[in-house]
Design brief:
The chain has 15 helices and 4 strands. It is mainly α. Helix 3 packs across helix 12. The mean pLDDT is 83. It holds the Pfam family BPD_transp_2.
Length: 357
């Protein structure tokens, strides 16, 4: 089989710390990167801009949220507000003449500053109290964005995003916008892959497991929680700015409401807390499954001659979609990423007989 550890010898620290010591993992990463970078050559523009592009941006956002939930173990129910801050800041900076690539970074920094400001108050509590505190961030930012005309133009206003100019070159094609989303997602993924190998990642895991025990061994839990909130907010702010620039092309308060925060939370939980590949699976499941269910039900009704009313067609896909989420969590509460790891772990030792004992 491809997944075989025989012949892999850790003779130095660099080999022991390798991200992908197994050849099959390196081959799969290479194939996925090749598929990602060549997708505009053979995929229809509709699939590229309507499915792959938002999936990549939301995967980056889910990874940022997973940094708080999965690595630091802190609840966050206001992640859409963080993304909205980055989106509005980047759009206003671009309209003021700031180059787009700098405006995106400014959006991330603004999101990090406001996220840390709320974290100072929120991190004085834990558990459900922390969740309610971050939910308050969502409602405060919703009200502020909607009722301050200087930010959004009003409750019903739509703020048009300027066209993206990267290093002075206009990016208007679907392929160009897709590559921006792809590069950002790869950058966030690379950062998360290397996080566990850093002192920051190990400190966050220690805080997640037991902050009092972490404090005993010299880890300043409050400081690292603030760093986690700042880093996660920066990733969310940049992701929100890229989502507006590459996909929506205009920003409204409804795009980053509390429903979107719940959607982002569902991506992380369904994919798996602390799982990088789970964030990819969770984002794909939450974004793409409703449309796939609609298509499947319409096809099945036409195939078997069922007559379904408009109300039924509108609500049945949502019911089946919710049932699928429950089913996945019943089979594996740790999410889709854990299911993938279970299959991979089985292939690592297959077909040895002791697996069945």
């Amino acid at each position: 089989m491809l997944f075989r550890q025989a012949g892999i010898f850790h003779t130095d620290y660099s080999a022991d710390r390798a991200l992908f010591p197994i050849n099959a993992d390196r081959w799969m990463i290479g194939i996925l990167l090749l598929f990602g970078f060549t997708a505009p050559l053979y995929l229809n523009s509709l699939y590229l801009s309507s499915y792959l592009l938002p999936w990549l941006v939301w995967t980056a956002g889910a990874l940022g949220l997973n940094l708080i939930l999965g690595w630091a173990g802190q609840f966050h129910l206001g992640y859409a507000a963080v993304m909205g801050i980055g989106a509005y800041a980047a759009v206003h900076a671009t309209r003021a003449g700031v180059p787009w690539e700098i405006a995106v970074v400014l959006g991330g920094l603004m999101a990090a500053i406001i996220g840390v400001g709320f974290a100072f108050a929120a991190l004085r509590v834990k558990g459900l109290y922390l969740a309610l505190s971050t939910l308050a961030l969502q409602f405060v930012m919703d009200w502020t964005i909607s009722h301050v005309p200087a930010i959004s133009g009003g409750t019903q206003a739509t703020l048009q995003a300027p066209d993206i100019r990267l290093l002075g070159w206009p990016i208007t094609s679907d392929g160009g916008l897709y590559y921006i989303a792809l590069v950002w997602c790869v950058m966030v993924t690379s950062f998360m892959l290397n996080l566990n190998r850093t002192a920051l990642g190990r400190a966050l895991i220690a805080v997640r497991e037991k902050d009092y025990a972490a404090a005993v061994i010299g880890v300043n839990s409050f400081y690292f929680k603030l760093v986690a909130f700042a880093t996660s907010s920066f990733i969310g702010g940049v992701s929100g700015a890229i989502l507006i620039g590459t996909f929506y092309h205009a920003v409204t308060p409804e795009q980053f409401s509390v429903d979107v925060s719940i959607q982002a939370l569902a991506m992380v939980i369904v994919g798996g807390l602390g799982s990088i590949i789970g964030s990819y699976f969770g984002a794909a499941f939450i974004l793409l499954m409703p449309g796939a269910m609609n298509t499947f039900i319409s096809w099945a009704a036409a195939k078997f001659g069922f007559s379904l009313g408009i109300e039924t067609l509108a609500h049945l896909p949502q019911a089946l979609y919710g049932a699928l989420i429950i089913g996945f969590l019943l089979v594996e509460p740790l999410g889709l990423g854990k299911i993938y790891n279970n299959i991979r772990d089985y292939l690592l030792v297959w077909p040895f007989g002791y697996v069945k004992k």
